[in-house]
Amino acid sequence: MVVATAAMMMAGCATVNRQQSDETAVQRQDCIETRCVVTYHLNDSPYWTDQRQRFCPASVVMDAWGTEPEGTWRCTYNKGQFSSSGLNRTYMKSLPAGLMNAMLAELLYMSFTAGGGFEPAGLTPGESVGIEGRRYESFRLGRVGAGHTLTVYQNVATGRMELLRLTDGKDIDWLAQSYNLRFNARLNRMMPRKIDIFDMRQGIAAKKLLIEFDYIDVQ
Q1: Which site in 64, 124, 143, 196 is 20 to 30 Å from 44, CA atoms measured?
Q2: Which residues of 83-113 are buried (b: 16+ CB within 10 A; e: fewer)?
Q3: pLDDT per residue as tens digits for the range 18-30
């Protein structure tokens, strides 16, 4: 009787472990692994670095990590929450967005996934606008207590969500543009290979390039 009970418990544990392994495999399969070269523009003196980024549209999660002369770092954006380690270093903090902060992580996640056709949830339609000679439909992406607003712009001609603007109404007014689409066979969709982040505080005509993400590998 004891032997039979133990066997049933072991079988049950094996089933749970197998289910957890299957769930992990599905989660990893849903994620997009990337490697990118990032250029930070600081006082006309660019700083180049290499980053790894993992985007998981199904769970609204992005992981990013890298190694700088000051040490390694890692951060996670998870449904509007941001956590990080290794970023509180002097030179890193001097770079635009401190290399990677909460607002840049959200803007980057939304720009990459929306640019690849993964439509964000919770969009509120806005007005049609003209930006640099193109027509866009705008959508407000609201988060209670976020302290900033995020607006998504869908190109009327192509249907792509290629521009996102994040502002906190004070010091931050960033525009992200995703482009250079390439077909990814595993995902069966076009994914952006370039994202530029601009400072928009002086207006669209005087926008200043802050950060460039060049995706050299998307899996």
Answers
A1: 64
A2: ebebbeeeebeebbbebbbbbbbbbbbbbbb
A3: 444 333 433 455 8
Confidence of residue 9 (pLDDT cuts 50, 70, 90): very low
Q: What is the pLDDT of residue 44?
A: 77
pTM, 2 dp: 0.86
Give residue 203's identity as a one-letter amino acid code: G
Task: Please give the Cα distance from 163 to 177 (Å, whole number).
Answer: 5
| Nearest C-alpha neighbor of 192 from the set 169, 163, 150 | 163
Which residues share a beta bridge with 150? 141, 166
pLDDT tens-digit readout, 43-76: 878 999 999 999 999 999 999 999 999 999 999 9
| Helix/strand/coil for 70 | coil
Is the CB of residue 74 less than 8 Å from the CB of residue 64? yes
Q: Give the CA-trace dihedral at 40, 189, 62, 17, to 10 degrees.
A: -150
Among residues 95, 76, 78, 98, the alpha carbon closest in space to that of 87 is found at: 98
Q: How many residues does the chain have?
A: 219
Query: How far is 78 from 109, CA to CA, in rounded Å?
Result: 10
| Residue 202 in tokens | 């002086």
Query: Which CATH superfamily hosts domain 33-218?
Result: Lipoprotein localisation LolA/LolB/LppX (2.50.20.10)
